[in-house]
Design goal:
One of its GO terms (biological process) is cell division. By secondary structure, the protein is of the alpha+beta class. The protein is built from 21 helices and 19 strands. The protein has three domains: about 160 residues, DNA ligase, ATP-dependent, N-terminal domain (DNA ligase i, domain 1); about 190 residues, DNA ligase/mRNA capping enzyme (D-amino Acid Aminotransferase, Chain A, domain 1); about 120 residues, OB fold (Dihydrolipoamide Acetyltransferase, E2P). It is about 40% helix and about 20% strand. The strands form four sheets. Strands 11, 12, 13, 14, 15, 16 and 19 form a seven-stranded antiparallel beta sheet that branches. It has a five-stranded mixed beta sheet with strand order 1-10-9-2-8. Strands 4-3-5-6-7 form a five-stranded antiparallel beta sheet. The structure holds adenosine-5'-triphosphate.
Length: about 550
C-alpha cells in the first residue's frame, strides 16, 4: 500500500466523529491492507513496534524540525519550523504546511522522480532509524527522516511527522482497533481482546484473525521475553471482599514498583516495568534473584527498596533505581532492591492465565522458595484486619484482597483484585509545561505545569513548585529540558512524557486551567518513572474525586 493512500484513509478516519463509523473505516482499511496489515494496524495506533516492545524511535522535536526544514528547502530553518509549530500547535499541521520534496528533494534521488513511498518502506526505514546508536546516529536519523519527508505529499507528511514524534492522535484507540479487527475478519471481539491481552501485538493478531480466524486467535500463547500488561486493582474494603466472594485471598501490599520477570534458563532473563519498559539493566538484583531457576517462568511482583535491616523503604527509593542507565553499581550500593513475587503467569511451557489465583500461587511456591508475598485465605473481616495490622507493622503499604478463584486478566482493572484505599490521596499527572526559576534557581526549571489525561489530549490542572529539593530540581531540569517545545518569556511548553505524583489538599473549580479544576496546595511527591502519560490520572477520575468529596 502506498503511504499516501494510507494517509488519505487516516485523514478520512480522523475527520469522522461517530465511533461506529470510525470502526468501520478502520475495518475497511484492514481488509484492503493486504500484506501490509500488521504494519497498518500498528501505525494507526502510532506505533512502529508492537506494544510489548519498548524500542523507541528516540526522535525528539529538534531532530524532526531539522529533517523537515531540510526537506522544505534552503529557505526554511529548524527555527522556522519551531516558530510555525508555536502557531499551529501540532507538528502534523506544520509538516503539512511546508512545501516538502521540491527540487532539493529530487536532487537527492538523482533528479529522477522517486518511486511512491510505501507503508512497508516507511516501516523499514523507521526501524532502521530506531536501531541507530552511537556517534553519527543523530545525523543518520535526520538523513532517514529527510529522505522520507522528501517523498511525502502534504497529508502523508502530516501523519509521518505525527508518527515519528508519537503524536498520532487520530481518535483511534486500542478498543477501536480490536473492534475493527473483529468486524473486518468476522471474529468475536472478545476473542480478539483475549489474544491481544496474551500477545500485546495488534499487528500479528490482526493477521491471525485474517488468516486463521477464531481458531488462530484462540491459539495465541504467552511467550517468555514478551511482556504482558499487568493486572490492576480497584480500591475496596474488607467488607466488600467478604461480601463478594466465598473466601478472600489477603496479601501484603508492598510499596514498590511493579515488575514482570521473564526468565528462560536456556536464554536470558528480562525484567519489565509496569509500562512494559525493559528495566533489566537497571535492576541486576532481580535478575540474580531468579538466576538459579531451571525452568522458564513469567513472574509478576513488586520491586521494593529495603534498608540495611531488610525493612521496606518508601517506593520513591525504588524509583531512583528505575530506568537508570549509568552508575547502576553505585546506585545499587545506595539503594538495595528486592523482589516480592505475588503471581505467576507461566511455568515451563504452561500458560497459567486462566488458572485460579490459588493454583497460580501453588505453582509460584513450587518454583520459588523465598521472596513470596505472604498470603492468608480469610473468610471474615477480622482475619483480614489481622493480616493488615501485621503488614502495616512491618512497614508495608497495606493489603491487597483478591478473589481466590479469579483468572489473571492482563491490563484489566476488574473486581477481582481490590486494594485498600490509601489514606492520603495523590494524583499522577503529566508535566506539560514549566517556568524557569529565579535567583539561585535561574538555571533550572522551577515550577511545573501539570495536566490530567483527557482522552488523547492533556488538560491543565495546576502548578507545582513545593516539595522539591535543590538536588531534585537539578535532576528534573536535566530530564525535562530536552522535552521543551516552545518558550515564551520564562514559560515553556513541555512534551508530555514525564509523570509526577502529586499530593494536594483539595480540588477546586477554576477557570484558570483547561480542566476546569485546580489543585489546592499541590506538592511534589515523586516522578512516576514506572508510568507513561497514557497511565496518568484522567480528567474523569478527577471529576469522580470531586463528586465524592462534595
Ligand atoms: N501483593 C500484591 N498484589 C498485587 N499488587 C501489589 C501487591 N503488592 C503491591 N502491589 C502493587 O500495588 C499496585 C496497585 O495499587 P496502587 O494504587 O499502589 O498502584 P498505582 O500504580 O498507584 O495505581 P494503579 O495500579 O491503581 O494504577 C500494583 O500495580 C502493584 O504494583
Amino acid at each position: 500500500m502506498d503511504f499516501a493512500d494510507f494517509a488519505d484513509r487516516v485523514d478520512a478516519i480522523e475527520a469522522e466523529s461517530a465511533d461506529l463509523a470510525i470502526t468501520s473505516l478502520v475495518a475497511d482499511l484492514f481488509v484492503d491492507a493486504g500484506a501490509d496489515l500488521p504494519v497498518v494496524a500498528r501505525l494507526l495506533l502510532g506505533r512502529v513496534f508492537p506494544a510489548w516492545d519498548s524500542t523507541t524511535l528516540d526522535v525528539g522535536p529538534n531532530l524532526c524540525h531539522e529533517a523537515l526544514a531540510r526537506a522544505a528547502g534552503p529557505n526554511v530553518t529548524a527555527d522556522d519550523v519551531a516558530a510555525t509549530l508555536a502557531d499551529a500547535g501540532e507538528i502534523g499541521a506544520v509538516a503539512e504546511s511546508l512545501d516538502l520534496g521540491g527540487q532539493q528533494g529530487l536532487a537527492a534521488f538523482g533528479a529522477a522522480e522517486p518511486d511512491p513511498l510505501t507503508v512497508a518502506e516507511v516501516d523499514d526505514r523507521l526501524r532502521d532509524l530506531a536501531a541507530a546508536e552511537g556517534a553519527g546516529s543523530r545525523d543518520h536519523k535526520v538523513d532517514v527522516l529527510f529522505g522520507l519527508f522528501n517523498r511525502t505529499d502534504p497529508v502523508a507528511a502530516r501523519y509521518l511527522a505525527r508518527l515519528v514524534l508519537s503524536e498520532m492522535r487520530i481518535g483511534v484507540g486500542e478498543g477501536t482497533v480490536r473492534d475493527a479487527i473483529a468486524e473486518a475478519f468476522d471474529v468475536p471481539a472478545d476473542d480478539v481482546e483475549r489474544a491481544l491481552q496474551v500477545t500485546n501485538d495488534y499487528g500479528s493478531m490482526a493477521v491471525r484473525a485474517c488468516d486463521e480466524g477464531e481458531a488462530g486467535l484462540a491459539a495465541a500463547e504467552l511467550a517468555v521475553g514478551r511482556p504482558v500488561q499487568a493486572m490492576l486493582a480497584q480500591t475496596g474494603t474488607a467488607a466488600d471482599a467478604v461480601e463478594a466472594w466465598e473466601s478472600v485471598a489477603v496479601e501484603t501490599k508492598f510499596d514498590g514498583a511493579r515488575v514482570q520477570i521473564h526468565h528462560d534458563p536456556a536464554d536470558e532473563t528480562r525484567v519489565f516495568s509496569r509500562n512494559l519498559e525493559d528495566v533489566t539493566d537497571a535492576l541486576p538484583e532481580i535478575v540474580e534473584f531468579v538466576a538459579d531457576l531451571d525452568v522458564p517462568v513469567i513472574l509478576d511482583g513488586e520491586a521494593i527498596a529495603v534498608d540495611d535491616a531488610g525493612d521496606p523503604l518508601p517506593f520513591q527509593e525504588v524509583l531512583r533505581r528505575f530506568r537508570r542507565k549509568h552508575d547502576v553499581a553505585r546506585m545499587r550500593e545506595e539503594v538495595t532492591v528486592e523482589f516480592r513475587a505475588f503471581d505467576c503467569l507461566h511455568v515451563d511451557g504452561t500458560d497459567l492465565l486462566d488458572a485460579p489465583l490459588l493454583d497460580r500461587r501453588e505453582r509460584l511456591s513450587s518454583v520459588l522458595s523465598d521472596g513470596l508475598s505472604p498470603l492468608t485465605v480469610a473468610e471474615d473481616v477480622e482475619t483480614i484486619a489481622d493480616h493488615e495490622a501485621t503488614a502495616l507493622d512491618a512497614g508495608h503499604e497495606g493489603i491487597m484482597l483478591k478473589n481466590p478463584e479469579s483468572a489473571y486478566t492482563p491490563g484489566k482493572r476488574g473486581q477481582n483484585w481490590l486494594k485498600r484505599k490509601p489514606d492520603v490521596e495523590t494524583l499522577d499527572l503529566v508535566v506539560t509545561g514549566a517556568e524557569w526559576g529565579e535567583g539561585r534557581r535561574a538555571n533550572h526549571l522551577g515550577t511545573f505545569l501539570l495536566s490530567a489525561r483527557d482522552e488523547d489530549e492533556f488538560a491543565t490542572i495546576g502548578k507545582v513548585a513545593t516539595g522539591i529539593t535543590d538536588e531534585r530540581l537539578a535532576e528534573l531540569s536535566d530530564r525535562l529540558e530536552p522535552l521543551i517545545r516552545n518558550q515564551e518569556g520564562t514559560e515553556v511548553d513541555i512534551e508530555p512524557e514525564v509523570v509526577f505524583e502529586v499530593g494536594y489538599e483539595e480540588i477546586q473549580a477554576s477557570s484558570t486551567y483547561g480542566s476546569g479544576h485546580a489543585l489546592r496546595f499541590p506538592r511534589f511527591v515523586a516522578v512516576r518513572e514506572d508510568k507513561t502519560p497514557s497511565e496518568a490520572d484522567s480528567l474523569s477520575r478527577i471529576e469522580r474525586l470531586v463528586d465524592e468529596h462534595e
